[in-house]
Design brief:
By secondary structure, this protein is α+β, with helices and mostly antiparallel strands. The protein is built from six helices and four strands. Strand 1 and strand 2 form a beta hairpin.
């Protein structure tokens, strides 16, 4: 099974293991940067990509389905900052594994986000609405004390690292 992260017609197809790594390194970065409600909503969206909670092969989202908020370009810049912090290996030394392919995933995703205009309508024939962007009340507002990352509490039982046991 594979998981797909898209930006219109651009795709990042990841195996289940690749998805786990991609989400975990992004969670380390987003947890360090998220301050505003929108940023914590994006963190909650990343939490929803936890296959240990959702199931293998059923996660992923399209940037066209994201509610980019009142300042779409500032929101996109936040996503880019998050990806760039992850690419700089933020807290990777704490992982119990070496993510050799993560930099390639992040580089590809960064290009997809950078090329995505949140104000452009989706291409003709493109189906959106496959992902529910977390509502304000679903924003990641709790932090896992053990792993120091934003979690989906109280909607979720644990953070992505509690679920995986890999940090």
């Amino acid at each position: 099974m594979a998981n797909v992260f898209t930006a219109g017609r651009e795709r990042l197809d990841l195996s289940n293991g690749g998805t786990d790594v991609f989400v975990e390194v992004l969670m380390l970065a987003v947890s360090a940067l998220a301050e505003s409600e929108w940023e914590r909503r994006f963190a909650a969206l990343l939490n929803q990509q936890d296959q240990h909670a959702m199931g293998n092969g059923v996660v992923g989202f399209d940037l066209a389905d994201v509610d980019w908020g009142e300042d779409p370009y500032a929101a996109r810049d936040f996503v880019l900052r998050t990806v760039r912090l992850a690419r700089r290996r933020h807290r990777w030394d704490e992982l119990r594994y070496d993510p050799p392919h993560a930099e390639g995933y992040l580089r590809r995703y960064e290009a997809m986000v950078a090329g995505f205009d949140p104000l452009d309508p989706p291409p003709p024939g493109f189906l959106t609405g496959c992902t529910d962007f977390p509502a304000p009340e679903e924003a990641a507002s709790a932090s896992c004390l053990r792993h120091r990352v934003l979690s989906g509490l109280p909607q979720w039982d644990a953070c992505v690292f509690c679920n995986s046991g890999l940090l």
